[in-house]
Amino acid sequence: MANFFKLKKTLPPDEISMFCEQVALILKSGIQLHDGMDTLCEGIEDEKAKKIFSEVSEVVSETGSLHKGLETVGIFPEYMVNMVLIGEEAGKLEEVMESLSLYYENENTIKKSIYTAISYPILLVCMMAVVLTVLITRVMPLFEEIFKNLGTEMSGTGKMIMGFGINFGKITLIVIVAVLVIALLIYLIVAFTGNGHKVREVVQKLPFLKKLNKTITSARLSSVLAMMLSSGLELEKALELAPGVVSDRLTKQKLKDCSVMVQEGTSFVEAITKIKVFPALHTRMINVGFKAGQLDGVMKRLSKLYEDEVNDEIAKVVSFIEPTMVAFLSVIIGGILISIMLPLASIMSSIG
Asked: How confident is the model at residue 4, as a pLDDT?
């Protein structure tokens, strides 16, 4: 814990995972939460971080609510804060903290996998941008100078070939620089403006991520509904809290509409069918579970199905990134080779 927490707008997944694990241990040991938070703060050496977590501890002591403490400091993800609220309402905070610890540990592993897949290719792209810049500004003029020293006039075909090679190199360089600038701008927006959620919304609409985002939303929803219903929480209250765990704004609004419909007398199955947050097959499973009084069991089963599907989709996305980067690098290498070989070919043809 000594140098574990750092002052950031949002804690990274590995630090969140450890924090959740420590809170779960505190709850499991039977220690009062506010006493446990005081003990946790004592192990933090960073003064700014210690001040923030002391504030969490103070709010927990005053209100008895970890959710209010986390919400006050504002350095925890919205999903985590809302899950803690649900855990407190359902009387299953220890279970929720253990689940969150595993969730963010898994998220950290995925981020590392993606970082490993793209970091080396990005470094190569930067190096190739430098190579292309040198070719265009230094080597190409040298080719032209060599040709002039030959004392002959370049043929029309030779001029066309050399011009195409030079222009192809310039276009390739422009594409590389544009990609790097866009990546840098996205990083700056996420890191310093607090609009990372807007960037995520745009990214989640990409064709190969749409299905993954929808499956994650369904997994979160079914998991929290199973937990709340199994704890004895009323269905109306569970639906009222459910929108807090989904990040997709459209789904969030659908859940709010579902909650309103149920409060106005519409049956849960009819309401959940209308909003279409689950596939038709799973909606029929929910219908059977609801009529049999086993809705929490059905939601738990669906949660497991979606969890397995999420893992499969994430593996597909990670495996998609690496070949895409390799293909992009191949185009760049082709641009460099064309930029060099075509001018050389034009010179050789003129000499011949």
From this structure: 43
Helix, coil or strand: residue 171: helix
pLDDT digits 0-9 by tens, 235-263: 888 888 888 888 778 888 998 999 999 88
| DSSP state string for 104-158 | HHHHHHHHHHHHHHHHHHHHHHHHHHHHHHHIIIIIHHHHHHHHHHTT-PPPHHH
Predicted local distance difference test score (pLDDT) of residue 232: 78
99-112: b (≥16 Cβ within 10 Å) or e = bbbebbbebbebee
* Contact partners, residue 20, CB within 8 Å, separation at least 6: 80, 97, 98, 100, 101, 104
CA atoms within 13 A on the CB side of 290: 15
Asked whether the predicted pLDDT for residue 201 surpasses 70, the reply is no
pLDDT higher than threshold 80 for residue 167: no
Q: What is the DSSP string of 260-316?
A: HHHHTT--HHHHHHHHT-S-HHHHHHHHHHHHTT-HHHHHHHHHHHHHHHHHHHHHH
Q: Is 278 left (phi over 0), alpha (psi -120 to 50) or beta?
A: beta
User: CA dist 276 to 28, 135, 282, 327, Å?
Assistant: 38, 56, 10, 38
Name the residue with tokens 């959620």. Answer: 197
Say which residue the tokens 């980067």 belong to.
325
Whole-number Å distance between alpha carbons of 65 and 61 = 8
Sorted by sequence, the CB contacts under 8 Å of residue 152 that are 6+ apart come out as: 350, 351
